[in-house]
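Now for a concrete sample entry.
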Amino acid sequence: MAQAKGAPSNKVPEIRTGDTVVVMRGKDAGKRGKVERVLRNPTAENRGSGFWRRATSRPVAIVISGVNIAKRHQKPRPRMSQNTQSMAQEGGIIDKPMPIDVSNVMIVCPRCDRVTRVKHERLGSGQSVRVCGHCREQLEANA
């Protein structure tokens, strides 16, 4: 039976902040990194315009430290503070990690150190947990 649109899903997230992942596709294929942020786009299904279209048009994207780095040329700007001194924002070329679609990465099991698909199992208490597809050990985010 299909869920109604806008209803919260009961599914456990596949990738969380703090997980170690490997990039499978793109210019950074083969690189490992830790997930810094998970960007969820609630308007991706209906293709609404707004803030999210600038970040990503896909439902879920992640930012990985040290992967998919873009160079941003930033102009120095004065930043006003509460003190009498004004702090200046430095200018120059800044390295900024950009989002990657979640379909282009796979999670690494911390126990067996292998790239794996995430399986879901229910504990005796009824709680759903993520487990490794190879060793069946529980995956915890190392946040």
